[in-house]
C-alpha cells in the first residue's frame, strides 16, 4: 500500500514541478461534499474524470441532439461528439498553457450532462413550463451531486462542479481550467455547427462572410487551429485565459451570423416547435400523473427531493431523444398511433 500511495504523490509533485503557479493543483483542491480517502494511484481530478466517463448521464449524451433534430446521416454531431470535441480543444489549450489538464478534461466531459433531449429546444420548453425555470448548467450540477448513483451523486471535487455551473457565456469559473472549457465550448460549437450546416445543405462554405474567413480561415481545421492559437498566444505566461479583442469580436460576429443563417433556418430548426410542444405536453401529463414517473414514491423519501416540478424536470431532462419519443408515444398517443 505504501508503494502504491507514492504513485499518486509522484503525479501531484509533477504538477507542482511542471504547471504554472496559477494552475489548479490536485492536492490543493477545495475537496468534495463528502470526504473520501484519496485514491492510491490517481490524483483527485483524474479520479473525477474517470467517474464522469463511467456515469450513465455521460453515456446518454450519444443519443441527445446537438443542433439538428433526427438528421439523415451518421456524421452530424450529437451532444456526446460535441462534448468530446470540447474536451480535445480544451486539453490542447490547457496543455500548452501548462494548466491542469486532468481538471480541464473533467470539466469539459461533464459540462453538458444536464442537457435535455432535443438540445436547446428541450431546454426552452422546460424553462417555459417549470415555475422555477430550467437551465442545463444548473441541471448538470444536480446530475453530478444527486441524480447519479441512485441519489448519491458522483461526489466530484468543488472545482469540477464550479466549471459545470459556469461554462455558459455569462459564467465566471473559479479556475483558469474552467475558463479554458468555457472558451473551448464556444470555439467548438461555432465551428462544428458550420460544418454540420454545410453537410446539411443549409449553407455553403462560400456563404461565410470574408470578414470572418480572412481572420479565422476558410475551413473547419483552419478556423479551429486559428482559434486555439489565438487563445494560447494571448494567454501565455498570464494568469488569465482569453482571446484577443480583435479575434473575440470576429468569433462572436460569426456566432451572430450563425443565429441569422443557421440556428433560425427552417430547414435546420423546422421540427423544433413540435419537439417543444411534446416536451411541454409530457411535463403537464406528469403533473397530473406523477405515479407514472418510475420510482417517484421512492424519490419522495430521498434527502434531495424538493417538489414534483423538480422531479419532472429531472426525469424529462435525463431522457435521450429516442427514449423521450417512446415514452411520449406510450403515455400520450392512442394505441393505434404508437411508435412501433
Describe this structure in words.
- This protein is mainly α.
- The protein has a single domain (2-337), classed as Hypothetical protein af1432 (Orthogonal Bundle).
- Helix content is 60%, strand content 0%.
- It has 17 helices and no strands.
- Helix 6 packs across helix 14 (272-288) and helix 14 (272-288) packs across helix 16.
- The termini are far apart.
Arithmetic mean pLDDT: 93
Shape: flat
What value does the Rg take, in angstroms? 21 Å
Total of domains: 1
Task: Pick out the low-confidence regions.
Answer: none
Order of helices and strands: HHHHHHHHHHHHHHHHH
Proper CATH architecture: Orthogonal Bundle
Distance between the termini: 55 Å
DSSP helix fraction: 55-70%
Largest sheet: none
CATH class descriptor name = Mainly Alpha
Structural class: mainly alpha
Q: Which superfamily, in CATH terms, is the homologous superfamily? A: Hypothetical protein af1432
